[in-house]
Amino acid sequence: xxxxxxxxxxxxxxxxxxxxxxxxxxxxxxxxxxxxxxxxxxxxxxxxxxxxxxxxxxxxxxxxxxxxxxxxxxxxxxxxxxxxxxxxxxxxxxxxxxxxxxxxxxxxxxxxxxxxxxxxxxxxxxxxxxxxxxxxxxxxxxxxxxx
Length: 147
Fold this sequence. Notes:
The chain has helices at about 20-30, 75-80, 95-100, and strands at about 15, 35-40, 45-55, 55-60, 85-90, 105-115, 120-125, 130-135. The strands form two sheets. The protein has a four-stranded mixed beta sheet, with helices on one face. It has one domain: 2,3-Dihydroxybiphenyl 1,2-Dioxygenase, domain 1, CATH 3.10.180.10. The chain is built from three helices and eight strands. The termini are far apart. By secondary structure, the chain is of the alpha/beta class.
């Protein structure tokens, strides 16, 4: 019998920002993230950052930092919106919403109860990325609704 030392599969969103320092500050103050690690290049530019919220993580980098891959990414304003967004599961939306609002976050959808469970709201960050914050947890056995 063999055993595996493989890590469990985890999905971590990675987002590029023109001003990663500003994005990190905004995510910390508006949504409550904490910085686990921030790696900078020789010029002090954020090459890679890891931000935590509960047991979730988002990775942040400076757009154009990696010349080999930078052409793969575009800023939301370059395409007139976004092609993907991040959903954050929180135990209670009310305090996160209050913090985001106090930090001046652009609220796209006000805090509201959802038919499928819990409350949720949606904000746009200073560079146009969209963040949905909700109490609905699709991993919960209560939220299973299979056809």
